[in-house]
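Format notes (please read before filing issues)

Several people have asked whether sequences and structure tokens are stored in separate files. They are not. Every record keeps both together, in the order shown below: the sequence lines, then the token lines. Line labels are part of the format and must not be stripped during preprocessing.
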Amino acid sequence: MKIEEMWVYPASGDAVYAMIVDPLFQESKCAATNAVDYSVGIEPEKGAHTVISRRTMSTASFPSQFKSMVGHTLDIVETQAWATPSSDGGRVADLTVEIKGLPVGLTGTLTAAPSGNQTQMTVAGDLKARVPFIGAKIEQAAAPAIIAAIRSEASTGRKYLGN
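Then the structure lines:
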């Protein structure tokens, strides 16, 4: 299932990237999704960074047919592997979201495209549930939570940037 979300931060590309690699922003992002527990690691790599966040999420709001399969919590690992900036200051990250112990995940890209004092962010990914016969239903059930997390990140970023 394809997932694409776009939003704009009223800040320069440099300011947005500084936010992305700030552990305080990443921790705020995790807290905003109501994670039961979370941790963040940021690894610098020659002008780029890899951001890894781990979250334990409650399954209390899941449909009962899926909750019985996954238990009371899910462990989610999000990895953003940011590349060095392009000539226009834009950046692209390879994005993966893994749900530990389940054959469900998101792979795609996260793009920061600056234009003056604004930066357009785009998440484009493919949500896959590698489960015969019911994979599409699992994807449909998981998609709203993924989209809600992306929108929460956008809102948290605006607050972080003071906008």
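For reference, the curators noted about this record: The mean pLDDT is 92. The helical segments are 13-20, 23-32, 64-70, 135-160.
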